[in-house]
Amino acid sequence: MQKYTIILSALILALFCQPVLAEDASKKTREGLFEKLDMNHDGKVSREENEKSSLAYFEKMDGSGDGNVTQEEFMSAIKLPEGAKLDTAQQERLKAVKMKAFERQDTDKNGIISREEYKKHATERFVRMDFDKDGKLVKGDIEKTRAAMRAEYEKMRAAKDAGGKKEKP
To answer: Would 59 be classed as within a structural domain?
Structure first.
């Protein structure tokens, strides 16, 4: 179970918090991540492998075992990869990214993420990352997702720096 916690924490950080992390720590994380998610070592991550990993991670985050993840459980479950160091500003941005990730997954806005909400979000994330829509992720899909998210982040940051409001994709 701890293996899945580390793997999915790294995935969340590598994919959703990339602008916050140092490039070298993030790259190192991505390099080993795919191999860990590819449970049968066929060079692809299937929907089943994604679902199994995601639900195992949900169970780990659910510290109380009640089938729900509170904001506190969510925030404390996502850890930085070993060796990653953040300055104060980066720590604040990471906290904001984690808060937004929680809010995005709490679709009914009741302050908790249910197992079904988490499973639905994990499936949607998988579908977004599956660029060729074959039901499997390959290393290239993960890199394409990272690049697309980075471009979106830079676009929002430029709009904010220009004094405008962030645009929704």
So the answer is: yes
Q: 């660029």: which residue's tokens? A: 131
CA-to-CA distance for 14 and 117, rounded, in angstroms?
A: 21
- The tens digit of pLDDT for each residue in 141-159 reads 878 888 888 888 888 888 8
**The whole model's pTM is what?**
0.69
Cα distances from 9 to residues 70, 97, 99, 154, 165, in angstroms, run 16, 13, 15, 23, 30
pLDDT digits (tens, 9 = 90+) for 128-144: 889 889 999 988 887 88
State the Cα–Cα distance between residues 69 and 118, nearest whole angstrom: 9
Number of domains in the chain: 1
Task: Look up tokens 């998610």; give the residue.
Answer: 37
AA letter at 87? D
Distance in angstroms (rounded) separating the CA atoms of residues 99 and 71: 8
Chain centroid to Cα 20, Å, comes to 13
For residue 40, give the CATH number of its domain: 1.10.238
**Positions of E strands within the chain:** 45-46, 68-70, 112-114, 136-137
